[in-house]
Design goal:
- A hairpin with a 2-residue loop joins β2 (about 35) and β3 (about 40-45).
- The protein has a three-stranded antiparallel β-sheet.
- α1 crosses α2.
- It has three helices and three strands; from the N terminus they run βααββα.
- By secondary structure, it is α+β, with helices and mostly antiparallel strands.
- The protein has helices at about 10-15, 20-25, 45-55; strands at about 5-10, 35, 40-45.
Length: about 60
Amino acid sequence: MTEKSVLSVQELAQQMGISLPKAYELVKEPGFPTIRIGTRILIPTEGFRYWLRQKSGIEV
């Protein structure tokens, strides 16, 4: 099975173990990788991983 290239906000919340309202707060933060298609917010998987490594202090 191939990995998804984007996550929905709901999938992001589930993957991170945070509430849906917190996930919506997160995607509105400056610098958080999102793609907006109409009213839909998608998170590129690779961009999210890069952001997570930066925030956790892991060398990128």
